[in-house]
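The freezer alarm interrupted the setup, so I double-checked each line after restarting. Inputs confirmed:
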Amino acid sequence: MRKKVGLVFSHVFLAILSIVWLLPIAWLVMHSFREEPGAFVSYVIPRGFTFQNYINLFTDTHLFNFPLWFWNTLRVAIASCLITSVLVLMVSYVFSRLRFTMRRAYMNLLLIIGMFPGVMALVAIFHVLNLIGLTQSLVGLTLVYSAGAATGFLIAKGFFDTIPRSIDEAATIDGASKNDIFWKITLPISRPIITYTLIISFIAPWGDFMLSSILMRGNQERFTVAVGLRQMIERETVSAYFTQFCAGAVIVAIPLMTLFLLTQRFYVEGIVGGASKG
Amino acid sequence: MAILNFFVMGSRCAYYGQRAKGALFFVAQVVFILFMAFFGANNLLLFRTLGATEQHTVWDEALQINRVIRGDNSMIVLIFGVLTIVACIAFIVLYVMNIRMGNKAARMVAAGESPPSFKEDLYTLWHDKYHVVLLTLPTIGLVLFTVIPLIFMILMAFTNFDRMNQPPGRLFTWVGLDNFREITYANPRLSNTFFSILRWTLTWAVIATFSNYIGGMALALFINKKGIRFKAMWRSFFVVTIAVPQFVSLLVLRQLLNDNGTVNVILMNYLGWIDEPIRFWGTHARTTVLLANLWVGIPFTLLITTGILMNIPEELYESAKLDGAGPIMTFRKITLPYMLFITTPYLISQFVGNLNNFNVIWLTTAGQPLTLELYQAGRTDLLITWLYSLAVNEQDFRLAATIGILVFIVVATFSLISFNLLASRKREEEFS
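Predicted 3D structure, all chains:
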């Protein structure tokens, strides 16, 4: 009997926790359909529901051009995801499978470079891009996201480490060059880590606020969704645009949630598997 | 011939039949000399003082106006100086390669062999030195977009580049360790701010990391408990929140916990527990950001630990039960050690990530509430957000760069110590 009461309590406890975690999301979705304007209302459930916020988000673009931001982010995300993945996979493969002098030293050097706070290089990147005329350009942003990818090799390297060496050796005996082995043997059997790398680097630009806010400062034409949506709820515009902000957030969240849920499994493997093998 | 090679790069290689290689070396040398003559030498000269002539106005008698004479731009001098130095280093590497390869060709000819042709060299590159092929592109990207900017920023910490000394109007110059002195002891207001923020940054990182870890693990164990129904459903309730982009959930939390936000509305109007709104982002801001971070972080730990918990061999628990161990005993002797073993690297990377957790702070409080005790910083500012506002809002680049170096020292110390403590690094070769 006591055990049963305990179990009931456990379930109630879990239900309360779930509400704490789900309420903000439910709230966001609800208020994206809210009819009444304003940032703050004195009740939880909106009085009226409407699609107008979503329609406005895409049609009322004179002050906040959400469709453009979305398109910007999408292009940057696709380009940087492709570049990053190729770079990361190449570096991880080298460190995992090839042996050469300075390998360990180079790995440690990359890890140390990766420890510098990203903000620190930013101001300098800004001036460097300025010199080559790429500030406030999406190409510049893409390069910034993807060019430094080499430091993020640990997880993919951990994956490559688990592929048996004997496969490579057999291929070498059959006359395959290392180039063949990389492209034709290792990559085709590494689909999980490729998917993981692609998705992680695709998601990053959507969530990044710091880099793009500095690079695109003041140029709304080039904003990404994170910077743009943050701008929407600045003090001056928050009461007029808050419900549109909610709608925008929902629209950004849907594709990313889908991607994430599809690859959840790789995600855990990536963190735990890769991390534990340093 | 050997002596000529010191002056004309590639001559020795060409002499021993490696014509293509020799030509490449020679071209590199010519390019470098031209670069230095027209460009680099001047850069290095100006680099010593970061520019000599300041922008000034001259009275133009003929036109009867003040004409602005453009001076040197310290920032461009600094960037080009760094680029020139990198180019010099690259040239020195090439030069050494030239000498070595020339010697090698000479030795091979003396031993009666023929030195490898260009084609054979390419073959070696593709096979025995394939790492060079694969690493070139990533390294170039890294040097251009991470290393050079970093060097540039590090150097900035040794200049007086701030709002008062901004190019193109004004020059800035080297000041040695002045900025470090100022921030650590010489300027009490600044050093107080620095140490106060450093303390909070460390406190934040410790509490944020461990509260997430413990909270997430407790939740995972709780859901895993025998007798809990719909395990997968409960789990997915939490995990779904990870999928929401972080900036969205943080901005939503910021809004919900506002003085007029929904949480206060619920507590006041619906439940009637309080009469006045709780100032979540005011006096309690530090606690609130930690709680917001828990909201963001617990599902992550839950997701990771659940997988690991399922991997713990069931026999371990069964034999422990036979030996009469209670639930607390099994947790302490089996679950916890196993979890720690697998997740320590994750824990470390979380800790380092929290030291530099820009998003959680900036998107919720942006460092606020401001206080007069601190210089250009608020009560929840971490070093990284302080650095950001100094650089972006105050254009105080010298201080920002100095803080950046200090942050790096803190982060690097922690990571190196902990990585060295980890035995798991040795497991790398296990699979080979």
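Quick read of the result. The radius of gyration of chain A is 24 Å.
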